[in-house]
Amino acid sequence: MFHIEFGTADYGLRAWVTGTNGTLETTLAYWRAIAEEVRRLSPSGLLVVDDMEGLPPPPEQLLQFVQAMRGQGMEAVRIAYVERHTEQIPEVEFAGLLANEHGFDARIFGTEAEAVLWLRYGERDV
Q1: Are 38 and 74 a contacting pair, CB within 8 Å?
Q2: Sign of the C-alpha dihedral computed for residues 89, 106, 111 and 42 taken in this order
Q3: pTM over 0.85
Q4: Percentage of the chain surpassing pLDDT 90?
Q5: Are 104 and 79 in contact (CB under 8 A)?
Q6: How many Cβ atoms from other residues are within 10 Å of residue 6's Cβ?
Q7: 3-state SS string for 69-124
Q8: Between residues 115 and 122, the one the model is more confident about
Q9: CA neighbor of 79 nearest in space, from 63, 53, 91, 97
Q10: What is the C-alpha separation between 27 and 62, in angstroms, rounded?
Q11: Is the pLDDT at 126 greater than 70, yes or no?
């Protein structure tokens, strides 16, 4: 089970995700909900703050996750992902690498402040 609280900011859309994760199904469900909001608002940047309990899907399922997200409208937005459980950052970074290899512009952060700076800096490209 998960809950997403959406908000807008100067860098784009913010999605704060809480609840319990640990399965590919949960991960896909909340990312599809975020993708729906991205399609609705067309932001230039997306900040996802993962404040969920539980582990990310196992590495062997991460490629399946990334492939399932293709064509959902997320390729057009810069994605800054904040993992609040810093011990999980290596697994999440692996997912980020896979995402970038499959046409997404994603980066993983340990703090929201760093993620926001990256989103804002990217918007200033001329």
Answers
A1: yes
A2: negative
A3: yes
A4: 74
A5: yes
A6: 13
A7: HCCCCHHHCEEEEEECCHHHHHHHHHHHHHHHHCCCEEEEECCHHHHHHHHHHHHC
A8: 115
A9: 97
A10: 10
A11: no
Question: Whole-angstrom Cα distance, residue 102 to residue 85?
Answer: 25
Total residue length of the chain: 126
Residue at 102: amino acid letter: H
Q: What is the pLDDT, as a whole number, of residue 125?
A: 41
What's the half-sphere exposure (Cβ side, CA atoms, 13 Å) at 88? 20
Dump pLDDT digits (tens) for 18-74.
999 888 999 999 999 999 999 999 999 999 999 999 888 888 898 999 999 999 999
Q: Find out whether 115 and 90 touch, Cβ atoms under 8 Å.
A: no
Give the tokens for residue 43: 């932001």
Question: Which CB contacts under 8 angstroms, 24+ apart, belong to 67-71?
Answer: 67/102, 68/28, 69/28, 69/31, 69/32, 69/35, 69/99, 69/104, 70/102, 70/103
